[in-house]
């Protein structure tokens, strides 16, 4: 019996357990992941920069930047504004290459003369020219991380940075002394600052204008984003005003409601006091009535007293009655508070304010757009003034004449004459019949679907999946929907503008897509599905594996569905595959595996083969019967081969592939 009772007590009072531990916090984890991701990207880009010879565009930019440093004038490469080349010049200032300003030739010839004919080491010069762009690319990775963190917290920031840091396109073009990544990164920075301007417009709108100006001062193709940026600036200021009015109205409504509640209670108390006094007066009347039969005099006196009391009561009753109107007067005030509070709530939900407030908000929004435009214009002018404070401009090559709407647009640009002439050069390029290559088809002109198709080939499969899911999440998830105009509209407008261009030369013309959609991809974490985070992590790891497998050949990357980097040349050409970057690797391979053999070379690039020890002849200038030995052809040249070169390739046997961009045949 005693044992049973003891057993019952033990059942009812279990042994105490240790207090639950608070969840572990690792404040160092996110910074560590950021550092690891950026370090991986930095290693990939620096390695690529060290191993690659100059691509087609780089000598032009390097020579122009060197001319800025030595001659302080704008005369070469007017089709691109100075800022991106000033970034390159920051590295060249350390390399201090020898420069001959008296050399006569076009901008391409000046670049080759600087690198190969002026006593400079092209490896050293190109590395120093590329390092500032590498640093800038890493900085833009932090911008992408911060943008995603604002939307989805630290986890979203890490997902975005992982997609950014493992993007083969961003690594490939971020490691070159070119302008595509800097221009796109400045645009991303401007949009991120406009997103933050929804809370602090006075700080962030001017900064967004500076970033937008930096984009315009780097590449003219970013002009397509100007209407979008102006609209976003106005919208951000408008939303900032609406949020401020909402916060102020809610605080005012709460204060007035509290005051009304207190006043109503005071009025109720006064009414109760008046009622009690009136009851006392009524009691005095009864006493006077009962005392009247006893004695006339006493009755008269009592009546007098009662009358006096009644008079007092009457005098007090109006006070009570007056207190009631006071209470009633307060009640309408309190009642009036509710509509005000309701109006504030309506404003916070997006209902338009009254006409006067709307006009003021509209003026402030227009002012925000004007501030952004002014900041952008100032930065563009400053980039030219930094090069030459006297703004001298004498074009070294003929400037095309444009007509019609193009001429009107050029004349309206509030920029220096050199900028406007550069715009005319760009329009001239658009009128040229360029050749393109897509999925084995050689064509003249451009295809509107070229860039989407090229992105499909050159983007990791996991990244494509996260992009698509992120776009859907940004549109579908309510709390992410305000970010849609900032992430999706600029991407769509810029991509649409690039798709209408005449030059189907590579995904570098859409390099902004992996930047903006990496931020949008973080929205997947907002989806209310138990496996969303795990699936996102798995896809990020898939992207990382695909990117690491292509190291260090990022330029010719294609995803697994299209056969990987070794098969890219069968579907794409130019900067997608072969941009002249593997001339040094070719020289090493020929020395190691094919010493002493006769070499016939068709090379597409800006490098000088003889500088790297390649002694070769052009097979297109010799009889076909004499072309014996090694036939070495750049994949871009092979893709567009016709006539004599096509016959030589068809009658040869492929024996080697250098850097996935140059094929070695034996004849």
Q: Your description of this structure?
A:
- Residues 1-21 and 262-353 have low confidence and may be disordered.
- A hairpin with a 2-residue loop joins strand 1 (435-438) and strand 2 (441-444).
- It is built from 22 helices and six strands.
- It is globular, with a radius of gyration of 38 Å.
- The longest helix has 66 residues, at 226-291.
- It has 667 residues and is mainly alpha-helical.
- It has helices at 2-12, 29-51, 58-71, 83-95, 107-116, 122-165, 168-174, 180-196, 201-216, 226-291, 296-348, 355-387, 404-412, 417-430, 450-458, 461-476, 484-499, 512-521, 532-549, 583-593, 635-639, 643-650, and strands at residues 435-438, 441-444, 599-602, 630-634, 653-658, 662-666.
Concise structural overview:
This protein is mainly α and 667 residues long. Helix content is 63%, strand content 4%.
Which characteristics define this entry?
mainly alpha; 667 residues; disordered N terminus; single chain; two-stranded antiparallel ribbon; 22 helices
**Unreliable stretches:** 1-21, 262-353
Sheet with the most strands: spatial strand order: 3-4-6-5
The fraction of residues assigned to DSSP E strands is under 5%
Rg from Cα: 38 Å
Largest sheet geometry: 4 strands, mixed
Give the fraction of residues assigned to helices.
Answer: 55-70%
**What is the β-strand count?**
6
From the N-terminal CA to the C-terminal CA, the straight-line distance is: 105 Å
Q: Which structural class do you get from the secondary structure elements?
A: mainly alpha
What's the mean pLDDT score? Answer: 85
How many helical stretches?
22
| CA-based shape | globular
């Amino acid at each position: 019996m005693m044992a049973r009772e003891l057993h019952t007590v033990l059942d009812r009072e279990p042994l105490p357990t240790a207090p639950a531990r608070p969840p572990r916090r690792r404040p160092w984890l996110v910074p560590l992941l950021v550092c690891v991701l950026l370090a991986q990207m930095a290693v990939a880009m620096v390695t690529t920069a060290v191993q690659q010879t100059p691509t087609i565009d780089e000598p032009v930019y390097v020579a122009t930047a060197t001319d800025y440093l030595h001659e302080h004038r704008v005369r070469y490469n007017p089709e691109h504004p100075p800022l991106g080349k000033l970034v390159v010049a920051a590295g060249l200032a350390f390399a201090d290459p020898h420069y001959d300003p008296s050399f006569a030739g076009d901008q391409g010839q000046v670049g080759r003369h600087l690198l190969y004919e002026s006593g400079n080491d092209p490896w050293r010069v190109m590395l120093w020219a590329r390092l500032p762009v590498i640093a800038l690319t890493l900085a833009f990775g932090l911008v992408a991380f911060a943008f995603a963190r604002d939307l989805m917290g630290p986890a979203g920031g890490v997902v975005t940075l992982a997609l950014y840091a493992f993007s083969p396109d961003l690594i490939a073009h971020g490691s070159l002394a070119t302008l595509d990544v800097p221009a796109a990164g400045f645009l991303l920075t401007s949009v991120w600052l406009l997103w933050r301007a929804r809370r602090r417009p006075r700080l962030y709108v001017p900064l967004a204008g500076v970033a937008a100006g930096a984009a315009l001062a780097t590449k003219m193709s970013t002009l397509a984003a100007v209407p979008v940026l102006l609209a976003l600036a106005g919208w951000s200021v408008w939303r900032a005003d609406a949020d401020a009015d909402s916060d102020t109205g809610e605080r005012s409504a709460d204060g007035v409601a509290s005051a009304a509640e207190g006043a109503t209670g005071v009025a109720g108390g006064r009414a109760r006091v008046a009622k009690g006094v009136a009851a006392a007066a009524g009691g005095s009347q009864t006493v006077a009535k009962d005392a009247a039969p006893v004695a006339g005099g006493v009755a008269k006196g009592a009546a007098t007293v009662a009358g006096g009391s009644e008079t007092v009561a009457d005098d007090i009753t109006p006070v009570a009655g007056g207190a009631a109107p006071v209470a009633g007067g307060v009640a309408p005030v309190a009642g009036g508070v509710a509509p005000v509070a309701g109006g504030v709530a309506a404003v916070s939900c997006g209902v338009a304010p009254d006409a006067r407030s709307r006009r003021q908000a509209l003026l402030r929004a227009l002012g925000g757009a004007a501030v952004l435009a002014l900041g952008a214009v100032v930065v563009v002018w400053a980039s030219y003034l930094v090069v030459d404070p006297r703004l001298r401009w004498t074009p070294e090559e003929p400037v095309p004449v444009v007509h019609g709407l193009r001429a009107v647009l050029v004349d309206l640009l509030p920029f220096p004459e050199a900028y406007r002439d550069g715009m005319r050069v760009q329009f001239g390029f658009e009128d040229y019949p360029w050749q393109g290559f897509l999925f084995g088809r050689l064509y003249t002109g451009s295809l509107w679907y070229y860039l989407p198709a090229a992105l499909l080939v050159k983007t990791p499969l996991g990244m494509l999946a996260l992009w698509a899911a992120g776009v859907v999440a940004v549109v579908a998830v309510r709390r992410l929907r305000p970010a849609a105009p900032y992430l999706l509209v600029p991407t769509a407008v810029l991509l649409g503008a690039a798709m209408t261009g005449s030059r189907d030369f590579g995904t570098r013309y859409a390099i902004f897509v992996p930047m903006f959609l990496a931020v949008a991809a973080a929205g997947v974490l907002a989806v209310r599905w138990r496996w969303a985070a795990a699936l996102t992590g798995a896809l990020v790891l898939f992207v990382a594996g695909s990117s690491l497998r292509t190291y260090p050949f990022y330029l010719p990357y294609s995803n697994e569905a299209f056969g990987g980097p070794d098969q890219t040349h069968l579907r794409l050409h130019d900067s997608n595959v072969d941009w002249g970057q593997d001339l040094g690797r070719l020289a090493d391979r020929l020395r190691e595996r094919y010493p002493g053999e006769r070499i016939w070379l068709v090379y597409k690039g800006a490098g000088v083969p003889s500088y790297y020890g390649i002694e070769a002849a052009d097979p297109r200038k010799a009889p076909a019967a004499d072309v014996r030995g090694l036939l070495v052809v750049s994949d871009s040249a092979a893709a567009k081969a016709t006539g004599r070169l096509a016959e030589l390739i068809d009658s040869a046997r492929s024996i080697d592939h250098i850097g996935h961009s140059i094929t070695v045949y034996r004849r």
